[in-house]
Automatic annotation (TrEMBL):
This is Uncharacterized protein. Residues 170-184, 312-324 have a biased composition (Basic and acidic residues). One of its GO terms (biological process) is positive regulation of gene expression. Residues 149-203, 245-264, 270-341 are annotated as: Disordered. It comes from Aureobasidium melanogenum. It comes from the Eukaryota. Coiled coil: none annotated.
Amino acid sequence: KEKAKTERYNFQANQIQFRGPVPDGLYHRYVEFRPFVKQMFTSTGVRGWVLSKALHHQHARVYNFDRTTKWGHFPQGPCKEMTQAFLDLVHYDEGGRIFTYVLSLDSLFRFTETGKEFGIDMLSKHTMHSDVSIYIAFSGEFFIRRLKYKNKPPPPDPADTGSGASSDDGDLHNDGTNESHPPHDLNNGPPNEEPPKDPAHYQLVIDNDSGTYRPNAKMLPLLKKFLAANLPGLHIQTLDCQKDEKKMNRMKQAQRDRKKKEGDHIVYAQAGSDASSISSSDEEQLDALEQSAVDQEDQNERGLAYQLKQDAGLRGKAKVEHLKRNIPGPGSNRPLAGEEE
């Protein structure tokens, strides 16, 4: 039996410039949940400098522009077409995808798909998306669900024990007949048909599940209002990652189950680096990254830290050569640079 050949797929990173400004309440600083985190964000100390450089490097690689980059412009501002473009970027409700996002203080919304099948060392997901920004507006994860009836509000979760304030306003009057995909199988859309293009058919479920910045759940209504103004026509539900934890985990598990059933089943690996699994926790990822940095310092292995050290050594050598050329030796009559003959 022939071994299947490895195929190359482009990892999709997305960013949308929303109309600002973001509400004043959407202002969050990184959380110092590990001793090295402050060093990483301020690029202080050898370890902090290495970690910061690695994350900046990762951000530049993920959000690079090349011939495959697709872009668009909506001079009229938020509109139905802009919401459709967003749905196109997230592939509507196809494949049970879950996305990691960061909303910056200048209203730039960055996001990529997340999951264990991505063998891409994202270091710290939200820190990478923010390009190691000390302050952001909001961060977390989101996913999309398609509704059976576009003119009815999204269905309530029958086992919901979370806050009713996090749901759409019309949920309290819902008759329970408007199913969604996932978790239900619905006609007139994926996986067997093309998705409908009307944004009213879709619900954006977004949370504050970010170990790096840990946004204040009390600001979720502000986030919802901001997103509703920039993505008109889309149903939006917010989830508090602590208060609504059971519901959030249940809904995300439904996404993962749907992905196993309908997804691409592709394992992505970043070219030029070792592939590794993505932890479900930012803290675990940063712990692994910290240990990696220590190993690189101690063992002088190949990799970014080693390359940076090499570069520093070459710069130092160049300075020495420069001084040799410009500082006269004993008995020399050659003037120093800047002296008159």
